[in-house]
Automatic annotation (TrEMBL):
It comes from Streptomyces naganishii JCM 4654. It holds the Pfam family ADH_N. Transmembrane segments: none annotated. Residues 14-341 form the Enoyl reductase (ER) domain. Gene3D superfamilies: Medium-chain alcohol dehydrogenases, catalytic domain (3.90.180.10), NAD(P)-binding Rossmann-like Domain (3.40.50.720). This is alcohol dehydrogenase (NADP(+)).
Amino acid sequence: MTTVAAYAAPAAKAPLERTTIERRAVGEFDVLIDIKFAGICHSDIHQAREGWGKATFPMVPGHEIAGVVSEVGPGVTKYAVGDRVGVGCMVDSCRECDNCRAGLQQYCAEGPVWTYNAVGKDGEPTYGGYSEKIVVDENYVVRIPDGLSLDVAAPLLCAGITTYSPLKHFGVGPGKKVAVVGLGGLGHMGVKIAHAMGAEVTVLSQSLRKKDDGLRLGADHYRATSDPQTFEDLRGTFDVVLNTVSAPLDFAAYLSLLRTEGAMVNVGLPEEPVRIELSAIFGNRRVLTSSNIGGIPETQEMLDFCAEHGLGAEIELIGADRINEAYERVLNSDVRYRFVIDTATI
């Protein structure tokens, strides 16, 4: 066991504070990672404040982890000391179900072991990336290409794969029209990735406040959803509507923007129930669906894609003593577009 410094929420809705946690000894197939940077995802806030239901405390959030391998177990073949690596939203799964065998570990039949706020196969709670080090089985670690600096790569382990996976699954590429709802931590990566895939990209945001940013990041068009004319002008336009916001929407209005057989994919998860009118998808065989991160092979594919196209997250680097401030700013949409913790300050 190794004692490391971390930032944890001691109870639901309590401010995070500096503490220490125990990391397991490096096993035969384990990798010990010196964490260099950890992104702050809105999911961290949902869970630390029990917005998605009962959670386990103390909680060390963080599932956007970038660092350097400092030790490997004797059976490890994929990584060596000094390698630049990342860890995303999960650190294990059953490995035996059809989904795990297909590289879709995020849909494990038994449920994946999440990076934090979960229980590992050893019966111990999992702790995330707001810490100095983490021990992870090599099969749930990915390699960060040399073309990506670790700080801007960290958010790709959630925000990047969460948007890349559905865009790829629904065939986004040249000739396709994509709308990205919301220009935040997820949305800004959705714009970058859809643009790099060759699609025509429109941002749908409440106002035009971030229009210049949206166009700079790769959007071809930027429309305000507060203007009813937007929904009239864009009716039947898009092949894919990627909804990145974690708030209830008028789904009928957004579904009306789809072409026949188009798909609205939700990657934001509201804390409250949402209302859906089935009549909105009748008649045009429109799809209303969701997508949950991506499997380990696809996460590596996403990182390689981002390196090839020079895509990193837009970040604001902070010290660990500003985590609580950052949480409030995320809730107020006051970040462009992802806070990243310099873990040397923990």
